[in-house]
Amino acid sequence: MTGTLLLTAVALFGGLLLIMLALLALAVRGARRRQESAPAAIPLDIREALADYVAGSDDLSRLRAVVATRRGQIAHAIASLHQSLGGSARDRLCSLALEFGLVQYWIEETGSPYPDRGRNAYAQLASLSVYEPCRRIASDVLLKALKSEDSEIRLAGYRFLIHTRAAGELKFVLEAAISQNLLTRIRLTEYLRSHATTLCERAVPEWLRSGDVRRLCGILDILAAWERAIPLEDLDRLLHHQDPEVRIRALRLVPLVPCTAGNAAALMSALADADPNVGLAAAASAGRMRLQEALPLLARLLRSASPEVSRAAAAALAQIPPRGPQVLREISGGSNAVAAAAAGEALLRFDHRGAA
Amino acid sequence: MTILLSLVLGVIVLILLGLAIASIGALLKACQVLRKHSRAGASLDFAPLVRSPLMPGVSVLAVSSDTSPESRAFVRRLLALQFSRMEVMLVLDGLSSTELAAWIGDFRLVPIARTPADDLPSTGVRKVYASTTEPRLKVVARSGLAADALKAGIQAASFPLIAAIGRECDFDNQVLLRLIIPMLEDEGLTAVCGAGSAPPAGGLAGKFGALESLRAWMTRCAAFSDWNALAPTPGSALLFRRDAIVTGGGFSGGMLEVVLRLQGLAHRDGRPRPVVFLPNIVKQSRAPRSFSKLRSRLAREQAEIAGVLARRESLAAGVPAAGWALQALFAARFLRPLLESIACLLAAAGWALGWFEPSALALVLLATAGTGMLISMAAVSLRELADPSGSDPALLARLFFAAIPENLGYRQLRNLWLLLAMLPKTERASLVKGRPAMRESE
Questions:
Q1: Which of A116, A225, A348 sits opposite B42 (nearest CB)?
Q2: What is the pTM assigned to this prediction?
Q3: Which residue in chain B is spatially nearest to A10 when comparing CA positions?
């Protein structure tokens, strides 16, 4: 009985072992093939020929000689080089991609059954669409991308629209940035940064008049994330908005917009706001703007608020020399333990910055 | 007597075969999951994420109970992570004043007034420090239960997302950016777990360690993740929402317990996929070259599993997902080693005393060592087929054939190590040193 069982088990084990060996053979063969075909680095000859071309040389003979046999490597090289170029050099590279049929190659790749290859092709087309002739050829594919369920592919579509620079398209993308997931929003915000002035002419003011708090918060977040001077005039109204979330976001924008008497007054009153988070945002902005007139209110906030707001007020005071650090020194020796500790911490950082 | 023993042996062999089939099934599932991930992957430009103020802040937790150069180097590696809004929350657990002074001197720490959040129970925090040279470093000095160290870090964290990167994790400085992507795509997600297996080191111990790590990674991480029962292996990198931990009432163990609890809670609340698994964004550090280090690594892992099993009531009550993963861990790390050890002893003794025929011994060998070989070989081949990692073909073959010596001698020894590591500390010390267990308590 045991003997029969053993024979069966041995036969089963032997069979499974053979299957494992066959799987190993497949795995080893695949690994060897990948090792041989892996484009570890862009070949030096291609890199040099491309560098010469974007630097102004019209000699394409070296690249033309290999384009039929090494198109994948050239495509990879152009894609890597494209990210680090701008202006006429980038346009030259785009025209080369067009001449070598790479735009068509990537258009075909968008239909690949492998999602990663498809996404890569869309991303390359979106990058090349900065150059008008490429944009014209890829427009159909990239417009279709806007309807894709894959957020990465949709992003390529949005980048295409941004490259058109048309106010209407930029507005559409900004609208999409507010409604998309945070990953897409962050990336679109970065891509839209260089079009901030165009957007702030009409689209942004229109949205800022919206009553929808969620949309308002979304657009204010994007404006603050641009971290650049923006020509917005009617922030005053939002600084007095009834919703503290809107007030907080508007306060973060104050150092980025033209300093008006209304904004400064709103900032001062926010330093005394009942909501601690509003006070926190106001302190950060006052520090960033080095507002001397905010010193008394910041000192009061440091002494009277929660530890978190105290720390924010102390950090703001440290940013307003010479009077701010003097106030901190006075408070750090005082009897209010929370304020003294926050002032001490801010002074330490201030002294360390000075020493550095 | 012989019939009874034969019956017992038969039952054990059947259970072992059942467990082996389950392991192979899990490996096939892992293969499917890894294949899906490798096809969906796309390289992402991190530049917009690195500088965007829209990125949520992350507190990276680290716990240290010593002042070793390795601990300080680990903290410096964390401080070098690329992320716009990040703090490293280092918990110095139970250090003497001399040891604390070494940290204070090294990082120029100064005490700061920091009121820890009161949403988690008190965790023995003595003082909070900030570094004057590393603005992103905060240090919590504490004493008390060692199991509460992570809780103290979470309590003092300033940001809504908490990252925990294991000491045994081999990571690059973009790991946080990779981890956060699923959370940016789905703001309802509770946690993200990045894990990889350990690359093999030289010598047999190094290969056995790599096989061990590969099997655990494929089953506990890849396969279990698809069943919402992910049980992270040591050397994983985790990112989770602070409020999810607070809602769950905190925890008193390591990251394994956190992830099991989060999945359990999500299952109870009817949320579909609370934890996302990302393969290969980190690796487990290289497998140890010596058997003594391999044993310490196994013992540490086993102690964490034993701790979670000991607190299973708090995890499993009403949360079957976490309970399911626990049962699988119990079967793999305790039941199978126990049954295999009993079966081997019983078959060897029975054969020596003439109770069983030699074929019974051979059958037991097939059910233990034979199935072990098949499982390890399957793990090596299936991983390479599902998720081509650019392995060296020769190395792949060496790892595959290392499954033979692994299961002829080492496996039996490993079973004893695992069982010994499951014992409470006092009993283990008495067994190892030959002292009565009571001595510790006396």
A1: A116
A2: 0.84
A3: B366
Interchain CB contact of B361 with A (< 8 Å): no
The two beta strands, B137-142 and B86-93, are parallel
CB-based contact (8 Å) between B442 and chain A?
A: no
pLDDT-derived band at A40 (thresholds 50, 70, 90) equals low
Spatial distance between the Cα atoms of B27 and A23, rounded to a whole number of angstroms: 13
- Residue B177 has φ and ψ, to the nearest 5°, of -65, -40
* Closest by Cβ to B42, choosing from A9, A24, A120: A120
pLDDT above 50 for B435: no
User: Which of A80-83's residues contact partners 24+ apart within 8 Å by CB, and which partners?
Assistant: A80/A42, A81/A47, A81/A50, A81/A51, A81/A54, A82/A127, A82/A128, A83/A127, A83/B45
Query: What residues are paired with A198 via a beta bridge?
Result: none
Q: Which pLDDT tens digit goes with each residue over B293-305?
A: 999 999 989 988 9
Sole residue written with tokens 């550095």: A356
- Which tokens in the block code for residue A120? 């890569």
Residue type at B131 in one-letter notation? S
- Give contacts of B388 with chain A, Cβ < 8 Å: 30-31, 34
Q: How far apart are CA B206 and CA A79, in angstroms?
A: 40
Does B357 touch chain A if contact means CB atoms closer than 8 Å?
A: yes
Residue A151 and residue A159 in contact, taking contact as beta carbons nearer than 8 Å:
no
Collect all residues with Cβ–Cβ distance below 8 Å to B105 and sequence separation of at least 6: none
Q: What single string gives the DSSP state of each residue in B5-42?
A: HHHHHHHHHHHHHHHHHHHHHHHHHHHHHHHHHHHH--
Task: Indicate the pLDDT class of residue A95, thresholds 50, 70 and 90.
Answer: confident
How do residues B193-244 score in pLDDT, each as one tens digit?
999 999 888 889 999 999 999 999 999 999 999 988 899 998 899 999 998 8
Q: What is the pLDDT of residue B118?
A: 63
Residues 176-235 of B with CB under 8 A from A: 181, 184-187
CA A181 to chain centre: 13
| Average pLDDT of the residues of chain B | 85
Q: Classify residue B209 by burial, with Cβ atoms within 10 Å: 0-12, 13-18, 19+.
A: buried
Tell me the C-alpha to C-alpha distance, in Å, between residue B377 and each of A22, B23, B78: 11, 12, 36
Interatomic CA distance for residues A235 and A266, integer angstroms: 10
Inter-residue contact A17 to B374 (CB < 8 Å): yes
List of E strands, B76-228: 86-93, 109-112, 125-131, 137-142, 161-165, 169-170, 191-195
Chain B hits for A348, CB-CB cut-off 8 Å, are: 110, 130, 132
**Is B117 at the interface with chain A, CB within 8 A?**
no
Q: Respond yes or no on whether ipTM tops 0.85.
A: no
Q: What is the DSSP letter of A229?
A: -
Spatial distance between the Cα atoms of B80 and B84, rounded to a whole number of angstroms: 11
The C-alpha atoms of residue B89 and residue B420 are separated, in whole angstroms, by 34
Task: Please indicate if any CB of chain A lies within 8 Å of the CB of B249.
Answer: no
Alpha carbons B260 and A138: distance in angstroms, whole number: 47
DSSP string, A50-99: HHHHHTT----HHHHHHTTT-HHHHHHHHHHHHTT--HHHHHHHHHHHHH
Asked if B200 contacts B266 with a C-beta cutoff of 8 angstroms, the reply is no
- Convert B25-57 to b/e letters by CB count within 10 Å (16 or more is b): ebbebbbebbbbbeeeeeebeeebbeebebbee
Sort out which chain A residues have CB atoms less than 8 A from B113's CB and list them: 307, 337-338, 341-342, 345
CB of B239 within 8 A of CB of B191?
yes
A325 vs A86: which has the higher pLDDT: A325
* Alpha carbons A318 and A310: distance in angstroms, whole number: 12
